[in-house]
Amino acid sequence: MSFEEVYEELKALVDEQNPSDVLQFCYDFFGEKLKAERSVFRRGDTITESFSDGDESDFLSELNDMVAGPEAIGPDAKYVPELGGLKEMNVSYPQNYNLLRRQSVSTESMNPSAFALETKRTFPPKDPEDLKRLKRSVAGNFLFKNLDEEHYNEVLNAMTEKRIGEAGVAVIVQGAVGDYFYIVEQGEFDVYKRPELNITPEEVLSSGYGNYITTISPGEYFGELALMYNAPRAASVVSKTPNNVIYALDRTSFRRIVFENAYRQRMLYESLLEEVPILSSLDKYQRQKIADALQTVVYQAGSIVIRQGDIGNQFYLIEDGEAEVVKNGKGVVVTLTKGDYFGELALIHETVRNATVQAKTRLKLATFDKPTFNRLLGNAIDLMRNQPRARMGMDNEYGDQSLHRSPPSTKA
Amino acid sequence: MDTTAVASKGSTNVGSSTDTLSTSASLHPSMNAGSVNEYSEQQRHGTNSFNGKPSVHDSVGSDASVSNGHNNHNESSLWTSGIPKALEEATKSKKPDSLVSTSTSGCASAHSVGYQNIDNLIPSPLPESASRSSSQSSHQRHSRDGRGELGSEHGERRSAMDGLRDRHIRKVRVSQLLDLQRRRIRPADHTTKDRYGIQDFNFLQTLGTGSFGRVHLVQSNHNRLYYAIKVLEKKKIVDMKQIEHTCDERYILSRVQHPFITILWGTFQDAKNLFMVMDFAEGGELFSLLRKCHRFPEKVAKFYAAEVILALDYLHHNQIVYRDLKPENLLLDRFGHLKIVDFGFAKRVSTSNCCTLCGTPDYLAPEIISLKPYNKAADWWSLGILIFEMLAGYPPFYSENPMKLYENILEGKVNYPSYFSPASIDLLSHLLQRDITCRYGNLKDGSMDIIMHPWFRDISWDKILTRKIEVPYVPPIQAGMGDSSQFDAYADVATDYGTSEDPEFTSIFKDF
What we know:
Chain A: 3',5'-cyclic AMP 2 binds at residues 278-412. Chain A: 3',5'-cyclic AMP 1 binds at residues 143-277. The complex is a heterodimer of chains A (412) and B (512). With 412 residues, chain A is an alpha+beta fold. Chain A has helices at residues 3-17, 22-43, 46-51, 56-67, 112-115, 128-138, 142-145, 149-157, 201-207, 251-274, 284-293, 370-377, 380-385, 388-392, and strands spanning 77-78, 88-89, 105-106, 160-164, 170-172, 180-186, 189-193, 211-216, 221-222, 236-239, 244-250, 295-299, 304-306, 311-312, 314-320, 323-327, 331-336, 341-342, 351-352, 356-359, 363-369, 403-404. Chain B has 18 helices and 11 strands. Classes of the chains: A alpha+beta (412), B alpha+beta (512).
């Protein structure tokens, strides 16, 4: 490339971009040119490149390239002396992005193994109609999405009814601690917000709620962030009508129910997995990885989980309910219940399912598949394959490769 | 004839590959010199500071034992016992030459002891004979395959094979390195309590504030060196039900020892407050640098990410989750290397999973938000957010409304800016992976999936760990002068430090 060509190119760029710092612009331009040319040159001897284990000189030269790298060219970046080798680069921040330091958040520390020992708190059951209505209210909220039927009811039963007789009562005040989540049963509430950051509730109460934002009607909820952690309330909610009824749920009760159940389920998984002979070559840590990976699936009565003759790669544990094992020509050979498992050989071998498993009642299963197993534990499969017990599993009493009953001791 | 010719060519190649290894080996003595120099600063802190208090001696002794104790493979045992036994065995098995550098300095810094060992081991990641024979056989296979082919094609094939073998060697080297760094831990009876008192320090300006207190720059009245003291208000901790987190923070920081993790020198308390004496990282927060630069070029982000990854790997292998990764908690030391600070949410997770929601909203993993018990995989998610934020200048999930933010995280849709390289996008898509059974760091190879990812191909991990790599940015500070120019100014408030009337909660915080 001749000098004239380089000059022409640079001139065209300068004319086009009209940089404020011309010297810096030229510097970046030549740096870029040089780097491009060198990289072409380097490509010639890739063999030595592949041998270098991130050669230091390479790394350094590339660090130097950062100063005048392709990313730092022209209008994309600005030279700031205090930044040393670094530069101020162009970024299009998301709208309203807060560039300030971010505060950590935390719930109260909780130890589920401790409260598993305590007696479970029970709440008086609510009217089924009320439950249905409450459930509909929170259906779209992600905090409630992972709850299954019985835990859902448990959480909703833990909600307490509150009556607010008059209009103009503040249920939550901006800046105050957030401990409760509310669902409106009857009446309407207005939401107001002060624009100031970090305003105290005292200031809000003494000098006004601020700008009107929206109105909350029956069936809607507010204050849901309080279920996650204690953050200052972002707005105030004030009753608009007289004779209001709301349901309140506090964070501690909510999280306790959720994690108590999660903990019980986890303990159940771990104990069930311990009973599966084929997994006995795994250590505790590996079994925990599987317990982490188990997915809950629910089958309605009558639906088929696996079908004889299909090729399967999933393993199932029965968490709740009953399942019937049906063999072609033989009818129901056995009924499996909570704590039983089936399909475990699919984890090691490509197996053809030798029987059909059908849900007899509503059936809650925990399942994971062979690809997941491979990803998480890899060659642990080889260990399992060489186990005599794994081979034994193939000749169990039903003469079935993919069905197995756990010892009676696991049945709770 | 043909075969032998190529085979001999192969063997010269083996020669050159062992050369590569020995070159790096020959680099190490100088590296040692460097690292001793670098750490001599810390040695001075350790030996001279706070006169007459043998602060570092105990930790050095056991450190050597741990890094030498090859029998100490069981991670959990690090937390329980076996330290004296390991020490005994280590003294037996110590090679005399590995002690040279440690004895010259009298009380060698913990770091140089550890890395001396690493250096001794690195040159032979594979048993000498094994590495030779395996590479040779691969070349022989080659020669058979390659017979009759054109020279150029042959060359390409050979380089592809070499590339594979090279990757394997690199992987073995890196895993050996990680293995060593993971075993460095201070003994369980390492006490931090009452080693210092408020009278030992002159409290200077505030470096940062948090929910329970603030961090001060302080000067030691004994050795005149500068430190940072984190002051926590006991009543606030109790009110906000963070007792367990605070006690865990002290315990974990008193046990960990890693180049990229802040050092806890000691703790003490007065009637109302807890005090934690730590290193003063003079370069300020990575957060401030990032906001000034707006975003980092890939090379810079990669450098900081690499240091964070080594620290996380170390913590995880010692059964600790960190849980609050973000640029605000990464400080730069005077050389421009990272120090992870604020272990307020760190937790030991040997057996159980975590279920306390904690962290920083932008960095929370989906499993934490959706109220599932979670584990170390959540830290790797946060690493993904951190890398994204360094490259883009802003985090991948953002909303002013926290509930909307959490919905975005659960949805998991990431928009990668056009200037992200394909390799970085590939890595991030494996870290910002909602399904923890697919998330890098949590799979069968653990952190190796991240460390060996192509995005880090030009990172030399042993040089990162020994801090023998040129940093992308050296903080413009006057080292050792208590220069806090890299920190934001905070309004100073009247403090009640040192009061002894009505001591509160002393039984709860008895270890401070």
